[in-house]
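Collaborator request, handled under Task 6.
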Amino acid sequence: MDVTNIVRTALQEMIVPELNSIKEENAEIKTSLGLINKRLDDVNSHLVDQSRRIDETNKRIDETNNRIDEVRAELTGRIDETNNRIDEVRAELTGRIDETNNRIDNVKAELTDKMDEVRTELTARIDATNNRIDQLTFQVGKIAQEMERIKREESVTSDILTRLRTLEQKTANL
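C-alpha cells returned to the collaborator:
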C-alpha cells in the first residue's frame, strides 16, 4: 500500500466520520436556520403589521391632536369673546353705577337745599308765631291790667254809688 493510500485511508477514517458529523450538524443548522428564518420572517411580518398599526395609531393621535387644537382654539375664542362681553358689561355697569351715583348726589344736594329752605321757612314761621304769641301775651297782660283797673274803678264807682244812695236817703229823710 502506498503511503498515499494509507494517508488517504487514515484521513478517510478520521475525517469522513467528522465530515459526516459536520454534514449532519450542517443539515441541523440549515434546518434550524430555516426555522429561524421563518421565525424572522414571521417576526418581520409582525413588526411590519405593528409598524402599520403604530402608523395608524400615530395618524389617529395626530388627528386627535388636531381636533384638540381646533377645540382649544374654538374654546379660547369663545372664552375671549365671553371675556370681552364681560368687560363690556362691566364697563356698562360701571357707567350706570357712576351715573346713578351722580344722580343720587344730585338728589341729595337738592334735598339738602330743600331741607335748608324748609328749615329756614319753618324757623321764620316759628319766630313769627313766637312774636305773635309774645304780642298776644303782652296784650293779654294789658287787658288784665285794664280789667284790674276797671275792677278798681267799678269798686270805687260802686262805693261812690252806695255813698250817693246813702246821702240821698239821708237827704230824703231830712
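The cover message to the collaborator said: "The chain has a mean pLDDT of 90. The chain is about 100% helix and 0% strand. Please let us know whether this matches your experimental observations."
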